Amino acid sequence: MTSSAEGRRSAGGREGVHRAALCLIAQHGVSGTSLQMIADSMGVTKAAVYHHYKTKDEIVLGIVAPSLDRLTAVVTAAEAEPDHAARVSAVVTGLVDSLLADRVAYGVLQGDPAVVQLFTRHPPLQALMRRVRALMTGPDPDDATRTAVAMLAAGLRGAATDPLCADLDDAALRPHLLAAARRVLAGCQAQLPAPATG
User: Fold this and answer.
1) Tell me: the pLDDT tens digits for 101-143?
2) pLDDT higher than threshold 60 for residue 41
3) What is the DSSP letter of 194?
4) What global pTM score does this model have?
5) How far does CA 145 lie from the centroid of its chain?
């Protein structure tokens, strides 16, 4: 026979931890959010949270894991494209779609100092980002290309989560993000081709 706490733990699961953590992090930041606060928000014991995650770092990585899995698949597919323009197009489209799929989580976690530190010391994420940059810049990028790619990466994240665009749903925002990406990359090596017509 299971206890009521065990029942609630099973009902909440990892997704419940993610939802509670994101709500609290939005208010208090990662540093100001404790596992006990997450447990209290879920109405479970701290042990129930420990059943899924031992640390806040693990929770943050758990929240972003689906996005990283999607981006890994995008990067792998883009690396198989036959030419640089097709690789850039595939990775930019994949980045936009990944951002939109996890818009709320990006909005909460982006810029949090604890998250930035965690990501900089997470080797799988750093390796993935190196692959993304290599796809975007191509070999031997010039200064204009490196600058454009850096601006694009920051700009996509910012536009997807900025209050200025909050009233745009994903379907409305997506073409604008892709068009803006084309404008940023115009005139440098990492050009994104225009969408096919007809």
Assistant:
1) 989 898 899 889 999 999 999 999 999 999 999 999 988 999 9
2) yes
3) P
4) 0.81
5) 23
How much is the average pLDDT of 191-197? 63
State the pLDDT at residue 7.
Answer: 44
Rg (CA), the chain: 19
Kindly indicate whether the domain formed by 4-54 is annotated with CATH number 1.10.10. yes
Question: How far apart are alpha carbons 96 and 51 in whole angstroms?
Answer: 34
Q: Quote the CA–CA distance of 18 and 105 in Å, as a whole number.
A: 9
CB of 138 within 8 A of CB of 77?
A: no
DSSP H helices in 29-169: 35-42, 46-52, 56-79, 84-101, 103-109, 113-120, 123-137, 143-161
Q: What is the arithmetic mean of pLDDT over 66-81?
A: 94
**CA 47/CA 19 separation, integer angstroms:** 17
Other C-beta atoms within 10 Å of 47: how many?
12
Give CA–CA dist 191/198, Å, rounded.
21
Calculate helix-pair angle for 84-101, 143-161, nearest 10 degrees. 20
Residue 151's pLDDT is what? 92
Half-sphere exposure of 195 (CA within 13 A, CB side): 11
pLDDT at residue 197 tops 70: no
Q: Which tokens sit at 165?
A: 């665009």
Q: How far apart (Å, rounded) are the C-alpha atoms in residues 136 and 134?
A: 5
